[in-house]
Amino acid sequence: MSAAASLRERSAEFAVLRALGAPRRRLARLIAAEQGFLLGLALLVGLGLGAVLTRAVVPLIVLTGDAAQPVPPVLVELPLSHVAALLTGVAAVPLLIVAALALRRGDPTVSLRHEGGN
């Protein structure tokens, strides 16, 4: 997961901010907002590509038992409520994981000491 890798790479930065007094919840919100933006952008691109490909490909691969195009032609419907529920579920899980990882970060002095040794 790229969000977890991003947290690991930036652990020293977050440790410095924690040592300077930044609240853990604020850092978690910052990370969640950053990852939420990236996730939302990816979901929008995926949704657009999926809708275009579904409308272009599904009518071509649905055939009758005689391997002919069905009559009437295939109607592709994408119910907005189902798509919104799916996108919400797909977006919520990674955001909750990132927020939980950000909130469970330990003592900033330990993180700084560990990062300084590398």
Describe it for me?
With 118 residues, the chain is mostly helical. Helix content is 75%, strand content 0%. Helix 2 crosses helix 5 and helix 3 runs antiparallel to helix 4. The longest helix is centred in the middle third of the chain and has 38 residues, at 24-61. The protein is rod-shaped, with a radius of gyration of 22 Å.
Task: Summarize this structure as a short list of keywords or feature phrases.
118 residues; mainly alpha; 5 helices
According to DSSP, the number of beta strands is 0
Taken in chain order, the helices and strands follow as HHHHH
The overall pLDDT average reads 80
List segments where confidence is low: pLDDT < 50 over at least 5 consecutive residues.
Answer: none
What is the strand and helix layout of this fold?
Elements lengths: L1 H8 L1 H9 L4 H38 L18 H24 L4 H9 L2
Helix pairs in contact: 2-5, 3-4
